[in-house]
């Protein structure tokens, strides 16, 4: 994709091999993947491990606001929450709850988030590329990405063109991901599959493989605008795609389930699944996926439930929901 002298975008012919020749079709056993995913919900986690898991889950959250009524004031409020999820933590718990991983906003609000998060270590993410439909002309999506990065985004959350994918135009999907990845420069690219519209586990696996082959740094389940959003079986299929890619190439790719994860209990179940799927990959020291660098939760409502559970473990009593800020 480039601009001609008149400023219009024209397509560059693909120089790489067709994605159809490089990405194998894999059949996913629906019964097996659902049974395996369900098994992770039955693990018993002891108190000390539960506390560590909850604090780890907090550090993996991408706090998000993607509404038409978003304002600079709302984004600044969310950024304060991101840096310090609970202001009374040290007084009551004796330790500080870690900050979240990132704050995700529309491109126009990236400068506000960048300023509010300066020096905190919390990343700025932005949903460029025609979110949530992914149906805008590619030139606009590429320029949207470039502008968001120029304004300070550390991460770009891109949604794929599901129409192209479901009609079998995999090369179109792959080339669009490559173009956006190139426009990201130093920023990480999280590719949203919108799994609720992909219809089958086979399609989730294929979309995962296509996105990874095209250069995604992360694969993400959902925009949060379509139901069903994140589910454990879908996320397991994506984790297995990431594992298989690493075993073939040594490339680490992150995973982000987003939408519908609201409770601390659910978050711990997802972490169990990540640990048992990617925690002992041959050739990897430790587990990169058990860190916010390579695993995220797109679940803003999750933060306060984690806080309630952390306070319960530390004090023996639950805090009320209104004891914690909403943003």
Short description:
The protein has helices at 19-22, 30-39, 47-59, 72-83, 89-93, 110-117, 138-150, 162-166, 170-184, 201-213, 232-249, 264-278, 302-315; strands at residues 2-3, 9-10, 62-64, 102-105, 123-126, 155-159, 188-192, 218-220, 254-256. With 327 residues, it is α/β, with parallel strands linked by helices.
Could you explain how this protein is built, in words?
The chain is of the alpha/beta class. Helix 2 packs across helix 11 (232-249), helix 4 (72-83) runs parallel beside helix 6 (110-117) and helix 7 (138-150) packs parallel to helix 9 (170-184). Mean pLDDT is 91; it is low at 1-16. It is globular, with a radius of gyration of 20 Å. The strands form two sheets. A seven-stranded parallel sheet has the order 3-4-5-6-7-8-9. The protein has 13 helices and nine strands. It has one domain: Aldolase class I (TIM Barrel, Alpha-Beta Barrel).
**CATH level-four homologous superfamily name:** Aldolase class I
Tally the beta strands: 9
**What are the low-pLDDT stretches, counting only 5+ consecutive residues below 50?**
1-16
Helix percent reads 40-55%
The percent range for strand residues is 5-15%
User: How many helical elements?
Assistant: 13
How confident overall, as mean pLDDT? 91
Strand order of the largest sheet: 3-4-5-6-7-8-9
> At the third CATH level, what is the topology name?
TIM Barrel
Using the CA coordinates, give the radius of gyration: 20 Å
